[in-house]
Amino acid sequence: MKFLDEYRQVDKVKILVDQIHSLKLPPITIMEVCGSQTHTILKFNLEELLLEKINLIHGPGCPVCVTPIEMIDKAILLSQQEDVIFTSYGDMLRIPGSGSSLLEARSNGADVRMIYSPLDAVKLAKENPDKKIIFFAIGFETTAPANAASVLAAKKLMLDNFFVLSSHVLIPPAVITLLNSELIRLNGLLAPGHVCTITGTIWCEDISSRYDLPITITGFEPVDILEGILLTAKQNLLNESKTLNQYKRVVTKGGNLKAQETINNVFEVCDRNWRGLGEIKNSGLRIRDEFSHFDVEKAFEINTVTSKEDERCIAGKILQGLKKPFDCKIFGNECTPTNPVGAPMVSSEGACAAYYNYRKIENEKV
Ligand code: SF4
């Protein structure tokens, strides 16, 4: 299948929905850990189409959302330092910290710039030798190779004014943390196709066998997701706990070895704090010692801050799959995409933004 449209065909969607409904199974709960999949589920109304058969819950699959508030506060403080040009992707600039956001810091005089690629930050460093360019690197395994490559590029250019604030996180330890929790019971998992494109499939296979959990590595279009759900549900029916690969057109067993090598050249695994999940051992990436002159944490003095989440925001529970955006009392009224109180309403991959964009009207009818 070569074209995207083939994965959105209404006929195929209908057939898959019918197949799922025809399975002689009690209702089961399946989690996805990918913000793009969450948005597809909401955009194409898959949650409603499978109602009473499959309970779809959304895990910590939005990299912007899982970045903890203290990291946002740290970014804001860094942006206010002298001679700094602070750069990151658009969503990160709008995430509320304890008191303000990076965009508000910009309104108050900080030089904060939106970029589309980490190499834009490297270019800025080359063009502004008298400034310190900080790049806020966030994301899962998917974005880590490009961010690592930016450090290698800066090294090649012998730049001494390019710095990275790394808040990278790794999906497998977060999934294991959720599975170890007593709070959540899953009958299956849709593993994120983009992460597995880099990592390969082995971590999923390990989790399937260790936790007796059916997993399907799944793509991002409606047909992908419905096939993923069907394969996962069928495993429940057959009492199987394997990892299946629905996204074979991209994901291989070993993953992208070149990308893995690039990540490992620049980053090493570290413990990391996640919004909603707390500190998870070996769940982050920090810059290796040999590249420490590019590491903000080593190159800058950063005052410690006491960060404080808005108590009304239940993002932490949403990211654990324990609540859905409609459970939040201020969803759609005090918290909207133009006036976001929490990260999941800002991010283009956030669950609250997905519910707001595609299901807000329905909620108003309830
Ligand atoms: S609707 Fe807003 S306040 Fe509520 S959980 Fe989502 S981001 Fe937080």
Description:
This protein has 18 helices and 11 strands. The model has no long low-confidence stretch (mean pLDDT 94). Helix 1 packs parallel to helix 13 (222-237), helix 2 (35-43) runs parallel beside helix 18 (351-365) and helix 8 runs parallel beside helix 9. Helices cover 43% and strands 18% of the residues. Strands 4-3-5-6-11-10 form a 6-stranded mixed sheet, with helices on both faces. It has helices spanning 10-22, 35-43, 46-49, 63-66, 69-79, 90-94, 102-107, 118-127, 144-156, 171-180, 193-199, 202-211, 222-237, 257-266, 296-299, 315-319, 343-346, 351-365, and strands at 28-32, 54-58, 84-88, 111-114, 132-139, 162-169, 188-192, 215-218, 243-245, 267-274, 278-287. The radius of gyration is 21 Å and the shape is globular. By secondary structure, the chain is α/β, with parallel strands linked by helices.
Show the helix and strand layout.
Blueprint: H1 10-22, E1 28-32, H2 35-43, H3 46-49, E2 54-58, H4 63-66, H5 69-79, E3 84-88, H6 90-94, H7 102-107, E4 111-114, H8 118-127, E5 132-139, H9 144-156, E6 162-169, H10 171-180, E7 188-192, H11 193-199, H12 202-211, E8 215-218, H13 222-237, E9 243-245, H14 257-266, E10 267-274, E11 278-287, H15 296-299, H16 315-319, H17 343-346, H18 351-365
Parallel strand pairs: 1-2, 1-7, 3-4, 3-5, 5-6, 7-8, 8-9
Antiparallel strand pairs: 6-11, 10-11
The structure holds iron/sulfur cluster (SF4).
